[in-house]
Each structure stands twice: as structure tokens, then as C-alpha cells.
Design brief:
eleven-stranded mixed sheet; 18 helices; Amidase_dom (chains A, B); 540 residues; alpha/beta; two-stranded antiparallel ribbon; amidase activity (chains A, B); AS_sf (chains A, B); homodimer
């Protein structure tokens, strides 16, 4: 076995060769932090191509596939297979020309995939050096479904080693930065998708979400993203982390520049009957009644609940301001807004980590020991070596009996949370319980590298299996978002997060929020996100 | 803490006192094996009451609640609360009188419940001495749902200690026998329900099924029963075994004397939106399209696959004969019948036991150690003491990491089995994959006590999460079901099962089969069971 660094060098060389030569551009200088406009200014794209990359998914789908990847920062990509994609695009063009019909609802849509969705003949490393050279002999189920729907996968995108970080750095492909401010993280674990889609390098990307990995990079990069319920989108055939864990499950979800794109993706995938290809996919058709909010008063006079903080970490000023913007917009649009009282969020976060950590160290060690690559213990820029040295996995994890006790506690809290939600019927004024919760996706906008240290604003909804959509509201504004006076801190950690805030440091970072619905209510969550989006637009 | 036998004596005394004095009858002599007609002949019931107890659920529901429990063998009961039931029945009568409306779709239906469905103010022991005296402070979710639907719970029924046996014997309530032949078991773990419903002591009972516990007693007692998919019927708030295990989950299902009763129960429960009360209940409405077999050619020219044996244990002659009866009946009704090729059934059984046994010994020991009651290690009549002495739980089970590896293997086999089913489309002649599998519920009819030693004909469908209905076909007939010549045995265990068969020993035992569908396709499974049932009736 060669040294792991030799494996990486060989892989990087192959990756470089997979980029068409004529697309290599000179990157902006290191001092340019905001590179979000670079695709339009680098000279690689003509006016028509720029128009295409700025077109939302639902509009784009009325055209044939003709866009190619435009990203300048290869660090957001892992596998590049534009050659295959162009062959497929040509096939689709021919099909349309010969039959006058589209192949499916995603006909011709270029689509980027997080680096865990196996594609026949390609490697899937999830950032592990040990998995370099492991070529998939079949597609993940979702890849098959997307291709049947007419989509054209063309690149895969970066992740953190193990997938179990909310930023995107690994020993194989390096680090993905935030296109709006390269001193900030693009989030994780679908951080490559976040950066690529924000740069208009892909109209729609597929991320996975075990604890926030679709929503955090969507929020940090200013995108729309959805974390569906377990099994609504097929997961089988992807590489994962903590494989065999049957409790808090990973799910795939779309990341894109419009809520219309989220809907197009979900409707196409669900209508493809994924339960005939993945035994964990839920047999539940796309439900137009649920999309039309039949269980929510047909969408008139909705009652949203705003969760201003989760009782553990108080959000930074830009997040608070974005909640106020949404509240005002919804009220202006005639909807009712109440406050959400979070219960047991701290415990839910702890329990979820206990479940994953039941055997995570063993899982990571067994994988990395093949090549001896170091297990990454921090996402910080500088002291990675020190952190690696200090990483000591738990010895052997816990027993199955201990795991069952934690899982039982989680079931009890899920029930308690459900009852808590149902009990809001008495305070909404609609006769129904709260229709959706609106809350931060994180207590901060995109953080400096290594500082995204609190992810329970997303994890709790994974633990409860509630679908949650991310939508953009504003960007950090140093005038409007000055540092707040100290509040009564919940604890030292809350104080640390408070002290991290500095309007200059977070400059230009997008600010997004989450809309949270009930289990398997994806249709309603999408519709309500459209309603919030329209209210924000109308209130501008 | 008193000695465990003292706790049992006190509990039995309280149980006896809960039986209305005027209902105590002299039981038949021990030499009377078939007691199935005893309720009609014991003199306790008048002609009208006998008529009522012989009425199927759908017809009964057109009348008001007026039947009371009629069982003669108290060993099938655990908790008896007829007084409460009569109060509730009177309330329902009043409601109907005053409003002209029924409370819900199960208005007035007396319903019996397996002894794990907690009811406020009652004990729930699942056969553990250690749980005597533990009174529930709230109803299980399903109990609430059933009461809201108008049903009247009136008794709870016997189970094996730990629930993890396919017969029904425990240290608290003793043993439940088969009403058609008391030398045989009524099965388990819902064996109390099996005996009670077969005796017409209840028109409909609720059992739970982790590995066959609804279907085995239904099959052994000649009933219709359904094992729904995970989460279709709410489970929360019941006591279970192996609590916190999140992988192969227990489900509740109906046991009754007609397939119409199965439908009435399922439709009522699903339409009650159980997902608003149980966070693990699937948000999926009762689907009339699925019931009308829209995905199965609207029910015309179906293609059934018969699994004659599972490749591990060859079924006894009466089971084989029942499969032939069904095949002939379906062909006569115009349906196509092909053979089902089982794959990996042995491995599926082993994996499922590995998952449950990851911590089962620890779970059982921790519970029984409170009182020191012995852990039961056999369901045999005679050598229970010896078996108890020889029971040595595994020491500490396995680690969480080991458990995840088994669970991962199971996910892979679920996918393989799904693909296997889909691939049958080329051999059905309908253009569709096989519509349903018909197979034994066990390789034998009800066995002598302690001899129900092979349950993988039911377990595999739990492991795959396929809904499965049991329906009666015939009874063991010593003339038609003579001993077969020895076949090429799969192994010594298969030979043991072969040698167990003796037409005299199994005399009068009901013979039932299973109809198996796809995950979350309960509506279609019920409709196809109706079709099979009608075909059997028509072919008689």
C-alpha cells in the first residue's frame, strides 16, 4: 500500500485531467473574498451562457440541456464527468427531436451530486483516502431515478471526511470555501454543492442531510434547500457514514436557487415510485391535496410559529433581524404569527449524538486504518495537525443494550414533541395547531473556517424526522446588524458563540431561515415555503 | 419484596375476583380436547347471545354493543374489566339514542386486546411477574384511537413471558391452549387472542406482531389476521419487548373471524390519522385506489405466486394440501398462479434473530431480576424446570458497531428481495410483477405444546416489512393428510420437523395460509385476501 499522501497526489492528478483544458481559468487573487460574481466576469462564459446559468430550474426545464459546468473553484468538485454528461445530453436532444417528447420531468436538467451518490464506473470517497480506487459497479437508486427523469449528472461535489462535519474539508480534495466570502465556510457536509450552486455552476444539486448537511450549506450559501422525511427520497446505493445505523437516518434533498426548483425535484422523484427500487423508500404518492394545504385551511390565514432561539444558543443579530423580516412579511400578507416554545432541544441534540457516537469512532477508525490517513479532528485552518494528534476515538463505543436505551428515550421525546405541537391548537386562532415553525438554520450566518460549532438548530428536526426547508431572507449588513449587548447567557458555550460575532467578519454572508413541518408532509412544507417567499418579495 | 410466587398468587386472586360470579361455569373435562363448541353448549348463553357471538364484525357493527365476554377458559385472559366496558357501552347507547349518530366507525364493537396495550388504571405485565402492580397512567395510543372510533375494550389476553415465544405461557397467568384441540398450542405471542376469538369470546382482537405473533395464533386458531407494515397502526404507549430496538419493529394487527373485520379495523384506525398521536405512525391515508387494486390491473387476472416451501423446512401434508386448494380455487376464478422462488430466507431469519438478540438476554435479565422470577426457557409442558436451569443468557450481547453491521446486511437483503420481486414481471403474463405471494404461515398446523420451533415463515416478512394476511383454508384431516414419504431433507432440523407430523396428533387443527404484499400496501393485501377468500368459497 503506498503512503496515503501518494494516493491523494495520484487522485488529484486524475481529477485535474478530468477538467476540459479550455475551461481552466486564472482564479481571483486570494485577497478577493467575494467571488460570487466571478463566473460572470471571468470571461469563460458568453452572454447566453450567463443567462442560462441565471435561469431558475423550472424555467430552465423548458429548454434543452446546454449548460456546462462553470465553477472556477475546483475545490468544490470531486468527480468531473462532463464528457459523459454531454453524451447523455446529446441523446436527450435526439430523443426530443425524434419523438417530440421529453424523457421525463427533468429532461435535460444538468444536476450536480454530492460525493456519496455512487455512479457506475466512478469512485466515491466521501473524503476518505481509503476509498480512492473503489469504483462503483452500479448507480445509487437516486441516480437511476434522476436519469430516468431526464436529468444529466455532470459533476460530484466536495464533503468533509466521514461526512460528519458541518464544513467541507478532507485529505483528498481539500477545503471548500464560501463564494460570498472565502474566509468563511460554505458549510457541510454538502458544502461543495452549496458553493457550486451559489456560483450558478449547477442549477440544482443533491445533498444529503443526516444532521443538517443539506440545510447548513444551503443557509450559508444563500440557497433554497429541503431536508425531506426519512425515505421520501431513495437513499439506497449511496455510500454513507455510520452505515447500518437504523435510527436517525440520512436523507437526500435538493439545493437550488428557487423554491420552484425544490418542488420540481421532489415531485419528479416521488412520482417515479422510488419504493419499487429502494425498500426503505416510503410508498406515498405526491399528494396534490397536501400541496394545496387541504389540512391547513387551504393556505388561507395560516398560523406560523417563530422560534427566536432554541434555549441553548442565542442567534446572532443578522439571524434575529431575518426572523423579524419574515414575521413582518407574513403579518402583512394576512397570516398569523405566534412564538414557538422549544422543548428539550438540548436533550434531543445530545441523544442524537449519543446514537451516532455509539459506534462512530470504530466506524471511522476501521475505514481510515486501511491507508493510515489521519482522522481529521478539526475544520480549523491552522492547527489541523495538532488536532489530529489529539484525536482519541472512544474505545469500542457502547453496547447494543445501551444503544437501545438511548433510542427508547428518543422515541419518548418524539412523542412528547408531537403532543406539544398538537397542543398549540388553542393559541393559533385557526382551530388548527401551528401550520409550520419558522426558525434559524443556525445561530449564525456562514462562520469563519472551523467555527461552525453548533448544529442543533438543524439536528433536532432530523431527530424528530420533521421535513424542513431553507430559504434566503437577507445578507449580513454591518449597519443593520451591529453587535448586540450581552444577553443573559445560557452557559459558557452560548457566551462563546455570542463573542464570535463581529459584523465585519461575517460581511456579505447570506442569511437564510428554516421552515419546519410535520413528518412526511413535504408537499405542505414546499407550498408554505412558496407562501413565505412570496410574502417576503411582496414586503420588499 | 415478597417471593415471586406470592406476587403471582395475589394477582391470580384479583383476576378471579374480576370475573362476574354468575359467569363462572364448570369447564369441560380434561379429556375433552376440542372445546370450540363449549360456549354454545355450556348453558351460559341464550340463543340470542349465541347468535350475536356468531355474527361477523361488519354485521355486528350495525347493532349496538350488547355482547359480553363468553370465554370459558380464563387462561386466555389476563385483565378482565367488563364492568368498565358495560359503562362505556351504556354511554354509547345513550349517545346514539340522543343524537341519532354513532360515535365512530367501530361504534359499540367489543374488542379484546393483547396484554401489552396499556389501559389507564390497569396493570400490563406481558407475562412478567416483575411488572405486577405497575398500573398505567395513560392509554396506549391505539387504545385511545379505538375508543374514539367507538370500540369497547373489555378484556386483555394472554402472552408468553417476554413476548418472544410463538406460544403463550408465562409465570403469571399460565398457559393458553388451542380451543380446537387442547393438547395443541394456540400459538403466540398473541395466543390469548387466538383462543378467545376462535371461541367467539370476542368478535375482534388486537394482537402484536414482531416475528409472527399475530399470524401464528391466527393460523393456529383458524382466524383472519393481518400484520401491517411498520407504523401503519400506532404502537406508541404499549409495553414491548426489546424496547428501543429501532430496526425490526413490532406492529399491531387485527385478529377476527372474517376478512371484512380486518378491513373495518384497518380503515377505521388509518382514517383516525394516527400520525397526529404517534410520531412513528406513517402519514398515509386509507387509499381507496390501492384497495381497488389500481396498481394491480384493477384486480382482474391477478397473478399470485405460491411458495410451496421456504428452502429451509418443508411444510407438513395439510399445509401442502391447503396450498393446492388455493391454487385450484384461484385458477378456477380466472387468476394466474406461478411458483415463488424464495431467496435467502435462512439468512433473513438468522439476521433478524441476531438483531433482536443483540441485547435480548440483557433486556430479559434486567426485568426478571427485580423479583427473581425464573426466565422461561421452553414452552414444553413437562421439563420447564430443567429448561429454566439450563438457560444461560449471552453475556452482555454485542456492541453497537456489531449491531450496525448486521443491520446493514439486512438493508442489503431487503433491496435484493425487492429487486427479486420486481424481476418477476417477465413471468407473470400480466406485464406486472407478481401481485401477491401465497405461502404457509408455518410449516405445520398448531403443534403440541412446546413444539412450535420454526417461525421463519412469518419472520421473513417482518424482516422485509411486507404486510401479510392470514386466512383459513381447511382443517387437518387424517384421511387426506396422511404422512408423506421422507423427502430429501435440507438438514437434521428439517428432518425433525418432518418426523413431528402425525395426523392423529394434529387432529382437528385449523389450517391457514398467508397472503403477502408490498410494504405499506395494506389496502391491496386486504382486497386480494377478499378475492382469495371468495375464490375458496366459490370452489367449495
Amino acid at each position: 500500500m503506498p503512503h496515503w499522501t501518494a494516493l491523494v497526489a495520484e487522485k488529484k492528478q486524475r481529477q485535474l485531467e478530468s477538467i476540459p483544458q479550455e475551461w481552466i481559468v486564472t482564479p481571483p487573487s486570494d485577497s478577493t473574498l467575494d467571488v460570487s460574481a466571478f463566473p460572470e466576469t471571468c470571461g469563460l462564459l458568453n452572454a447566453r451562457e450567463i443567462e442560462i446559468t441565471n435561469t431558475p430550474v423550472n424555467v430552465l426545464l423548458e429548454k434543452l440541456a446546454c449548460a456546462a459546468w462553470t465553477a472556477v473553484d475546483v475545490n468544490c468538485l470531486t468527480e468531473i464527468f462532463v464528457d459523459r454528461a454531454l453524451v447523455r445530453a446529446a441523446e436527450l436532444d435526439d430523443y426530443l427531436k425524434n419523438t417530440g417528447k421529453v424523457v421525463g420531468p427533468l429532461h435535460g436538467l444538468p444536476i450536480s451530486l454530492k460525493d456519496l451518490l455512487c455512479i457506475e464506473g466512478l469512485e466515491t470517497t466521501i473524503g476518505y483516502v481509503s476509498w480512492i480506487g473503489q469504483y462503483a459497479d452500479k448507480n445509487a437508486v437516486l441516480v437511476d431515478v434522476l436519469i430516468e427523469c431526464g436529468a444529466v449528472p455532470f459533476v460530484r461535489t466536495n464533503v468533509p471526511q466521514t461526512l460528519a462535519w458541518p464544513e467541507s474539508f478532507n485529505n483528498v480534495f481539500g477545503r471548500t470555501t464560501n463564494p460570498y466570502n472565502r474566509s468563511l465556510t460554505s458549510g457541510g457536509s454538502s458544502g461543495g454543492e452549496g458553493a457550486l450552486v451559489a456560483l450558478k455552476g449547477s442549477p440544482l444539486g443533491v445533498g444529503s442531510d443526516l444532521g443538517g448537511s443539506v440545510r447548513i450549506p444551503s443557509a450559508f450559501c444563500g440557497l433554497y434547500g429541503l431536508r425531506p422525511s426519512y425515505g421520501r427520497v431513495p437513499f439506497y446505493g449511496a455510500r454513507g457514514t455510520l452505515e447500518g445505523q437504523d435510527s436517525v437516518l440520512p436523507v437526500f434533498g435538493p439545493m437550488t436557487n428557487s423554491v420552484a426548483g425544490v418542488k420540481v425535484f421532489m415531485k419528479a422523484v416521488v412520482n417515479a415510485k422510488p419504493w419499487l427500487k429502494d425498500s426503505l423508500a416510503v410508498r406515498k404518492k405526491w399528494d396534490e391535496d397536501e400541496y394545496n394545504l387541504v389540512d391547513h385551511g387551504s393556505g388561507k390565514d395560516l398560523c406560523f410559529a417563530i422560534m427566536w432561539d432554541d434555549g441553548v444558543v442565542v442567534p446572532h443579530p443578522p439571524i434575529r433581524r431575518s426572523l423579524e423580516i419574515v414575521k413582518a412579511g407574513l403579518q402583512k400578507a394576512g397570516h398569523n404569527v405566534v412564538d414557538w416554545k422549544p422543548i428539550k432541544h438540548r436533550l434531543l441534540g445530545e441523544i442524537t449524538r449519543d446514537i451516532w457516537n455509539a459506534a462512530s469512532a470504530e466506524d471511522f477508525m476501521i475505514t481510515t486504518s486501511v491507508t493510515g490517513e489521519p482522522i481529521i479532528a478539526t475544520m480549523e485552518l491552522d492547527d489541523a495537525d495538532a488536532a489530529v494528534a489529539s484525536f482519541r476515538p472512544q474505545n469500542g463505543g457502547i453496547t447494543a443494550y445501551q444503544l437501545w436505551q438511548v433510542q427508547k428515550l428518543r422515541q419518548d421525546i418524539r412523542k412528547e414533541y408531537l403532543d406539544h405541537w398538537e397542543a398549540t391548537a388553542c393559541e393559533t386562532g385557526t382551530g388548527r395547531p401551528v401550520d409550520a415553525i419558522i426558525c434559524p438554520a443556525a445561530p449564525f450566518a456562514a462562520t469563519p473556517h472551523g467555527k461552525n460549532r453548533y448544529v442543533d438548530y438543524t439536528i433536532v428536526w432530523n431527530a424528530l424526522d420533521y421535513p424542513a426547508a431553507v430559504f434566503p431572507v437577507t445578507t449580513v449588513d454591518s449597519t443593520l446588524d451591529g453587535k448586540a449587548p450581552p444577553h443573559a447567557f445560557y452557559d459558557d458555550f452560548d457566551k462563546d458563540i455570542y463573542e464570535m460575532y463581529d459584523p465585519e467578519k461575517f460581511k456579505n454572508a447570506p442569511v437564510c431561515l428554516q421552515l419546519v413541518g410535520r413528518t412526511l408532509e413535504e408537499e405542505a412544507v414546499i407550498r408554505m415555503t412558496e407562501i413565505v417567499d412570496a410574502a417576503l418579495l411582496a414586503a420588499k
